[in-house]
Design a protein that fits this description.
Helices cover 75% and strands 2% of the residues. The protein is mainly α. The strands form two sheets. Strands 1-2 form a two-stranded antiparallel sheet. It has a two-stranded antiparallel sheet with strand order 3-4. The N and C termini lie far apart (44 Å). The structure holds phenylalanine.
């Protein structure tokens, strides 16, 4: 596509909110709080923060810079950087194509629960077996997925400034207000269980923030670092082309490193708040044992039970909670779709409308297969990392645990060793901006990040 015709975000706020919208997603809400509680509270948080400022920052700023410099989609950007590295672009485009269908299926689950709480049926949603009954049904999950996919397509069809930016500018502030409100509420509750034990939200907060005594052993620090790194990598939406696509819509006069810093603060802030929202509430009503669940188990089984126990407020809080999750999930899905649409537009000279429809149909077909993976096509296999998997888990494993680290390692080698880090730092400082973390950046992209990513990849394959 001609550079002059390329859509762009109107300014730095539009870019930051759209990118933060991508970064803030299910990972922040259903995985971060659980990992923090499991890995010794404060220890995890400290390691996560350090990694966010070094490792996360490096990967994120690299991708945004590649996008802005090349003004190309993920599919075509790597080829512009270096002809020989074109195949990496293909891989960076396949990743979002794999993620899109199952992300929409999960988005559909959120729609279902939002509607349940909205219509006052939260009590049923909290019953044992409700999630499995819904999930194994052959039609409702498909219908809900279609609603979610349609919503996402409408935003992307609107274009970069009038669709994605406008949507993010409305949704992200709303998300912040909702999560703040529920977090504060969560801290004010207390409950006495059948055994006469009273637990309060504030006590639950200690589990999240205060490092467990004796938690800083070498073994613990190592495994916590691996957990934090995996989480961070996923949470910042790197290695799947998204940040390249969004960077390509960023105006040249915007301070790039400042904007990337803001995205990080946003993403990490929301993750911490999600912890404040979830950990105390689960602790109050379910005790420490209740904190065993993460992922779908936490969101669709444990939390509805917690809302139910809140009494009269339960349905309201449940409804607000699922509205918030829906906001977080749609802005992420929009970014996945945009990475693909921009690739089709730049790589195959398609119009936005046609590109969106084409990917919509692909996601629909694969999404149906994912839904049927829980009934008609049911099977169980064990993945190399030990997890028992269905279609959804396999797609998640291949994209997140295998392909994404490969794309990220490839990007580090290309930028750190072939193009040299100056290629990126020149883009960051193109308007004479200061780049305070320059030295750190060079060391990270050349040495530290690729080694850490390799460790992540080896761990996922079960080799170490
Ligand atoms: N970064 C999002 C999160 O933290 C997840 C995501 C995955 C977003 C894939 C876009 C694409 O949940």
């Amino acid at each position: 596509m001609n550079k002059k015709e390329r859509n762009s975000f109107t300014g730095s706020i539009g870019f930051v909110l759209a990118a933060a919208g991508s970064a803030v997603g299910l990972g922040n809400i259903w995985r971060f709080p659980y990992l923090a509680a499991r890995d010794g509270g404060g220890l995890f948080l400290i390691i996560y923060l350090i990694l966010a400022l070094t490792f996360g920052f490096t990967l994120l700023i690299t991708e945004v810079s590649i996008g802005r410099k090349s003004k190309q989609s993920p599919l075509t950007a790597y080829g512009v950087l270096s002809k020989k590295w074109k195949p990496l672009g293909i891989l960076a485009c396949i990743v979002p194509m794999m993620i899109m269908p199952y992300y929409c299926v999960i988005g559909g689950w959120v729609v279902k629960y939002f509607l349940a709480f909205l219509t006052g049926a939260g009590v049923q949603a909290a019953e044992d077996g409700y999630f499995t009954r819904f999930n194994t049904d052959t039609s409702t999950p498909i219908g809900m997925m279609i609603v979610f996919l349609f919503l996402t397509m409408v935003v992307v069809l609107g274009g970069v400034d009038k669709g994605i930016e406008k949507f993010s500018k409305i949704i992200m502030p709303l998300l912040v207000v909702l999560i703040l409100f529920i977090s504060i509420y969560s801290l004010t509750i207390s409950h006495t269980d059948d055994a006469g034990v009273t637990r309060s939200g504030l006590e639950g907060l200690k589990i999240l923030f205060i490092p467990e005594e004796g938690s800083a052993t070498f073994q613990n620090v190592f495994s916590t670092t691996m957990d934090a790194m995996g989480q961070l990598f996923y949470s910042l939406s790197v290695a799947m082309g998204i940040m390249i696509a969004y960077g390509s819509y960023m105006k040249d006069d915007i301070n790039l490193s400042k904007s990337v810093g803001q995205i990080e603060v946003f993403d990490t802030g929301i993750a911490f708040l999600a912890g404040v929202m979830i950990i105390p509430a689960v602790y109050v009503f379910m005790g420490r044992e209740g904190m065993q669940a993460s992922g779908p188990g936490l969101m669709f089984v444990s939390l509805p039970k917690v809302f139910l126990q809140m009494g009269k407020m339960g349905n309201v809080i449940g409804c607000l909670f699922f509205a918030m999750v829906l906001f977080a999930a749609t802005t992420s899905a929009v970014s996945i779709l945009e990475a693909i649409v921009s690739s089709f537009m730049d790589g195959f000279h398609m119009e936005r409308k046609h590109a969106t429809l084409l990917e919509g149909v692909i996601a629909l077909i694969l999404g149906i297969v994912v839904c049927l993976g829980y009934n008609k096509f049911y099977f169980e296999i064990t993945l190399p990392n030990g997890a028992v998997a269905q279609v959804l888990d396999i797609m998640d494993y291949v994209s997140n645990n295998l392909l994404m680290p490969v794309v990220a390692i490839g990007t580090c080698i290309l930028v750190g060793w072939i193009l040299k880090p100056e290629y990126i730092t020149a883009e960051i400082t193109r308007n004479g901006e200061k780049f305070g973390r320059r030295g750190l950046y060079v060391i990270m992209i050349k040495y530290v990040a690729p080694v850490m990513l390799l460790a992540l990849l080896l761990k996922a394959t079960g080799i170490v």
